[in-house]
Amino acid sequence: MREVEEKPCITVEELVNEVSRKVGVPREYVAYELMMLWKKGAVELEGYPMDNRIMYLLSIEGLWYWVTLGISLASVLAVLLIGNGPLMYIRYVLGALMTLFMPGYSLIETLYPRGDELKPLERLALSIGLSLAITPLIGLILNYTPWGIRLIPIMVSTTLATTALLTTAAIKKSNYYLSRRSRCFE
C-alpha cells in the first residue's frame, strides 16, 4: 500500500514487479493481493492511458457515447420504418426513450462530464426532468418555423439536439481523461 501512495501514477506491472522484488515474494502473489485491494476499493486502477480523443471514443470509457447514439439511431429508424402491427411497441419504447430520457441524459453528460459529481439516481432523475423541459422547448421553437409541430420535424430536431449534446459531452469527457493522463504520464 505504501508503494501506491508514494507513486500514485505507477502501472500495475511496475507495481507488481517492484513489490515482488522488495518483499521477495512471487509476482503472482503480489498481483493477487493487489486484485483483492482493488475489489475492496482500497486501490483504484485505471485502464491504459489514452493519447487522443479517438482512443477515448474507442475505449470502454467511450462506450456510453456509442450506445446512446445507437439508441437515437434505432429510434429514428423505428419511427421511419415501423408502422402499425406487432412491432409498433418497439417504436413506442424507443420513442419514449428518445423523448423522455435521451435529451436530458445528453445534457447531464455535458454538464457533469466526470461522472462522479452526481449519484446515479440523481443523474437519472435529472435526465428525465430535463428531458421533460427540453422536448417542449424544441416543440416551441418548431412551432415558429415553416415545418411546424409534426412527427418528422420533432424527431429530427430532438435527434440533432441530442447528438450535438452527446458530442459535446464526449469532447468534454475526453478532455477530462486526457488531462488525467497528462498528470500521470508527462
UniProtKB/TrEMBL annotation:
| UniProt keyword Transmembrane present | yes
Q: What is this protein called?
A: Membrane protein-like protein
Instruction: Give UniProt keywords alphabetically.
Output: Membrane, Transmembrane, Transmembrane helix
The DUF1616 domain covers 73-175
Entry superkingdom? Archaea
Report if keyword Membrane is assigned. yes
* Residues spanning the membrane: 63-83, 89-112, 124-145, 151-171
**InterPro entries per the UniProt record, alphabetical:** DUF1616 (IPR011674)
